[in-house]
């Protein structure tokens, strides 16, 4: 197998990278080219020269000063931001204000992707993206109050430490040789964070669950460690699992070729049995309004008054909803 760049002036194929096998050749895909580069130069994305050399580091400088850390030219070389011949590396591009990668955030109505409630793309320095992503999730992270005698306890839908660890893992360990974005999808019953690259070659999901770790971006992981954003390699997944200890719902971790997904369940989302799935459409009405009426149910399901009354009575009996008021002023609230 040989690689060559075609010559347009000889009437051959357009300029590009081709893979020749025997007497035939075919254009190489971006993934194939990426793998060939890694095979010849090693998986050293961070150390490679950045194609963008006009870089600024205002946010990084600000974050380092908060932690009492210096950011001199010597430090830039020690961190791998600047090469020995004073050329900015891809590591430099990643932590610069001109970072080319982004996080795409989507909030969906319900448990599927049929209806968008909001969407945004977070750009700029990865430190800006990290902060903005956490703040956006926190804005939508509901709070449920429970009372034990006179003591009130507030619990968030998603444990804050689990969110933090999942975000940090996605940023520190994704494969930045892919140009695509990191995805954060928020549904009524779960939060999903999908990062490109999957686990490094040779590291299984089972090994990662045990605490084994091999940072793909060693310089970036080292910087985050110095900044005390991460405490130790290999602890992220175990911390996330610990956040859900003793709860009826548990986080999930999925690794496929090219991507890694963390699924954090909403600790307060109602888990309906198969028998109770018929009430799901009524429960979804509460996603847009605090209270509903019998008329709302009739309109949403296209049913008559008697059918709607019977369904609401069943939901009251099953403790899925509560009743407020009487007569024409009767309203219903989700439990």
UniProtKB/TrEMBL annotation:
Is ATP-binding found in the keyword set?
A: yes
GO MF: helicase activity
ATP-binding in keyword set:
yes
Give the signal peptide range: none
Q: Which InterPro entries match?
A: RecG_C_sf (IPR038475), WH-like_DNA-bd_sf (IPR036388)
Task: For this UniProt record, give its keywords in alphabetical order, as a comma-separated list.
Answer: ATP-binding, Helicase, Hydrolase, Nucleotide-binding
Source superkingdom: Bacteria
Recorded protein name is ATP-dependent DNA helicase RecG
């Amino acid at each position: 197998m040989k690689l060559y760049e075609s010559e347009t002036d000889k009437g051959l194929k357009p300029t590009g990278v081709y893979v020749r096998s025997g007497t035939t050749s075919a254009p190489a895909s971006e993934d194939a080219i990426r793998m060939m580069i890694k095979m010849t130069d090693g998986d050293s994305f961070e150390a490679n020269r950045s194609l963008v050399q006009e870089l600024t580091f205002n946010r990084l400088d600000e974050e380092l000063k908060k932690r009492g850390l210096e950011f001199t030219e010597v430090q830039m070389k020690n961190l791998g931001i600047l090469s020995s011949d004073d050329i900015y590396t891809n590591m430099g591009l990643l932590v610069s204000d001109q970072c080319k990668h982004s996080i795409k955030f989507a909030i969906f109505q319900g448990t599927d992707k049929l209806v968008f409630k909001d969407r945004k793309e977070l750009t700029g320095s990865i430190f800006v993206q990290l902060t903005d992503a956490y703040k956006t999730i926190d804005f939508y992270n509901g709070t449920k109050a429970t009372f034990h005698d006179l003591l009130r306890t507030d619990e968030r839908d998603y444990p804050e430490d689990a969110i933090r660890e999942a975000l940090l893992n996605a940023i520190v360990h994704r494969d930045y040789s892919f140009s695509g974005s990191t995805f954060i999808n928020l549904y009524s019953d779960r939060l999903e964070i999908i990062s490109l690259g999957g686990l490094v070659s040779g590291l299984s999901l089972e090994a990662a669950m045990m605490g084994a770790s091999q940072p793909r971006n060693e310089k970036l992981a080292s910087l985050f460690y110095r900044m005390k954003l991460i405490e130790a390699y290999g602890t992220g997944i175990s911390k996330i699992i610990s956040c859900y200890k003793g709860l009826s719902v548990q986080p999930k971790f999925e690794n496929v070729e090219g991507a890694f997904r963390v699924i954090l369940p909403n600790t307060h989302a109602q888990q309906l049995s198969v028998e109770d799935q018929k009430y799901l459409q009524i429960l979804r009405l509460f996603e847009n309004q605090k209270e509903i009426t019998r008329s709302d149910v009739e309109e949403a399901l296209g049913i008559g008054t008697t059918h709607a009354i019977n369904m609401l009575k069943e939901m009251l009996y099953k403790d899925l909803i509560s009743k407020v008021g009487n007569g024409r002023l009767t309203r219903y609230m989700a439990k």
